[in-house]
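To whoever is on call:

I kicked off a structure prediction for a single chain this morning and the downstream step that reads the tokens threw a length-mismatch warning. I double-checked the sequence; it's 318 residues and nothing unusual in it as far as I can see. Pasting both halves so you can look.
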Amino acid sequence: MCTPELSIIVAARDAAPFIGQTLESIRGQRFENWECIVVDDGSSDHTAAVVRHIADKDSRFTLVRQSFGGLSKARNRGFLESVPASKYVSFMDATDVWEPNALVSLVESLEQNEGAIGAHGLAELMDREGRPLAPGTFSAFGRQRLGYRNGAIIEWPACEPTVFETLVWSDPLYPPGLWVARRTAYESVGLYDPGLQQCENWDMALRLSRLGPIHFTDHVVLYHRRCGEAAAGGVWSDLWGVRRLHRKTFFSRENSPAQRLMLREGWRAWQRFKIREVWGKAVSSCVRGAPLGVMEAGWQLPLHAVEYVCGKPSLLGL
């Protein structure tokens, strides 16, 4: 058997209704030199049976089963089980679907840009049944990257790659199936952080971007399924997760001197940007007679002001 050029890691838990479509989208890729490690992370449904049925038809799939350990541990297990000689790695969510040309596009982008450590595209949303959901909105979010340059937060030019200076502020590389990266980069930064219950993919993207740029391919490569589930802690849990990530990134010993300087200067620039944004939304809400929007701005503005004065991520909100 030839050495696969690309290792695909799929972490799955109770994904039986969807994982068949996910794996068939992998089988249908026009780029064919891959292996796929599916890690069943303690599923209570018949996820493993669905995977076995597909693996019986295609030996490029491997099923690994473990007791529940969480998303990061499942992805790490898959990486460690993959062929060490493969050149590239991609992590795929068990409910998402790739376009047939996704891997051809991403791998070609990497091969044409030797200085890049990865390549990413855009995603669109679909609902539980696989129907398009709010077409154009999710790809627009991924396309509108924000980055720090010359003392201000700006819209990043479409012709430029995604870099550390853009990933600090938002995560256009979600979900993980949007991108492919060099195995050597993953080996350099280490495994997913199991201590992060949220933003673990964003954290990995940031760690990789310290090594070099991630080439941006301006077309849709993936459909991300929204099943209607909400985070257990709601908005405050989400905010706390982002705050933990910001603190980890800001104070990391892995930052170069230039990255540390960018973070110090960029943090205040980001707060100024958010204050203007929130104030604009508050004025708009007031004009439209939408009191909830005004109330939301009422607690967000003071928090951004505190963050600006601190000059670093505090333990407060965003």
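Update from on-call: the warning came from a stale cache, not from the record. Cleared it. Sanity check on the structure: Residues 235-310 form one domain.
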